[in-house]
Amino acid sequence: MKPNLPLNADRLWDDVMALADITDPAKPYTRRSFTQLFLEGRAWVAKRFEQAGLTVRMDAGGNLIGRREGRDPSLGVIAIGSHSDTVPSGGRFDGIAGVVTGLEIVRALDDAGVVLDHPLEVIDFLAEEPSEYGLSCVGSRAAVGALDDKMLALTEPGGEKLGDAIKRIGGDPARLAEAKRSDIAAFLELHIEQGIVLESQSLDVGVVTSIVGIRRIEVIFEGGADHAGTTPLHLRRDALVAASETVASVRQRAEWLASETSGYFVATVGILVVEPNASNVVPGRCRMVIDVRTTDPAMTTRFVEEIDKDSAAHAAAARVERVAFTTLSDGPPVACAPVLRDAYHAAARSLGLKATDLASGAGHDAAFMSRICPSAMVFVPSKAGKSHAPEEWTERDELAAGAAVMLEALKALDKSLPRRAGAIAK
């Protein structure tokens, strides 16, 4: 057990478990954005916010916000946040831990009788995970003015537009400009590491130095559906053949780029949809989505140019058409604010905890928030590095230690931040 932590570790833990339990019982732990389960989770979060004395509202972008006033209403907001949605069959901590940490910090401040100078907000951002509409970080995009009409027009398989879905869950796309924030002095986010560095080195927290940029590319091949038994091979127009060759190219190009540079680079084909998807039918259409992550935008540009050429060549070789090669989303890599990172390190030292600097290979809402304010993250250990899986696990005391670091950093920043929002380097 970590000694002398200035918050209630049991209360924090119990709420993380309670929110995680709002799940599809057939696919634990699943609470996809825009679903009924997501709305139930949101209602739970809103109730907890209200019980903690926060003023609760939802902005036009569908972000759920709890606010605690400070002594000086003219000061910029210090915001803590993450997300409550999950990937399919995800875990109990990804996103959830960050939202509940913000809630517990509010309660710990109240327990200690601490009134901050700055207003404090806890934000549950909408749809941080890739949604059924093909877009991630929907709420944080809205908060920084990066959710445009083209994105709002994206549709899920049933045909509903993203803009309509935001309206359905309580946002207001017609007033989206009002969701853009200009009053935030700093943004803090706690997250599980999703890697093995902290666990393998017996470290308490990671202070995130940078967050990778993520680009997602959609590629669609169209050929001709034919009988799998009666159509000669030389007459087939098999869309899956072109797609499978492109999958191999993605892996080969990514390995080559990663090996020839000191920068971080990975690429993954995470979606492959085959139509008509029958054992006795030659695939007539295939859609794939490529996820590209790097700390160097030039590497992404180089990779995409090569895959553009490769996929076109594979389509020609398979006698199919490549009808789409489209960028679905593109977020550049960002550096976390040094002044916030310094505050995390000082807080860890004051608590007797061991910290290290870490880069994040995953995307987070903090990456978008860095566009409008200084932002930085704290990582807590992940057992065996597992994430986006039911086995995802962080120990109670590990989570509490990370939350305590954020609490102590928050109290220090409340006194040391410039007296107006946006006055320090991002």
Proportion of beta-strand residues: 15-25%
CATH fold-level assignment of the largest domain: Aminopeptidase
What is the makeup of the main sheet? Answer: 9 strands, mixed
Rg: 23 Å
Helix content: 25-40%
Number of helices: 12
Mean pLDDT: 95
User: Low-confidence runs (pLDDT<50, min 5 residues)?
Assistant: none
Please write the CATH class name of the largest domain. Alpha Beta
SS-derived structural category: alpha/beta
Q: Please, what is the CATH homologous superfamily of the largest domain?
A: Zn peptidases
Secondary-structure element sequence? HHEEEHEHHHEHEEEHEEEHEEHEHEH
How many individual domains? Answer: 2
Give the N-to-C terminal Cα separation: 35 Å
Q: Number of DSSP strands?
A: 15
Architecture per CATH nomenclature, i.e. the level-2 architecture of the largest domain: 3-Layer(aba) Sandwich
Q: Which overall shape is indicated by the principal axes computed on the Cα atoms?
A: globular
How does this structure look, described?
The chain is of the alpha/beta class. The chain has two domains: 9-212 and 334-416, Aminopeptidase (3-Layer(aba) Sandwich), CATH 3.40.630; 213-331, Alpha-Beta Plaits, CATH 3.30.70. Helices cover 35% and strands 23% of the residues. The strands form three sheets. Strands 1, 2, 3, 4, 5, 6, 13, 14 and 15 form a nine-stranded mixed sheet that branches. Strands 9-11-7-12 form a four-stranded antiparallel sheet, with helices on one face. A two-stranded antiparallel ribbon has the order 8-10. A hairpin with a 5-residue loop joins strand 1 and strand 2. Helix 1 crosses helix 12, helix 8 (239-260) runs antiparallel to helix 9 (297-317) and helix 10 (338-351) crosses helix 12. It is globular and about 80 Å long. The protein starts with 8 loop residues before the first helix and ends in a 10-residue tail after the last helix. The model has no long low-confidence stretch (mean pLDDT 95).
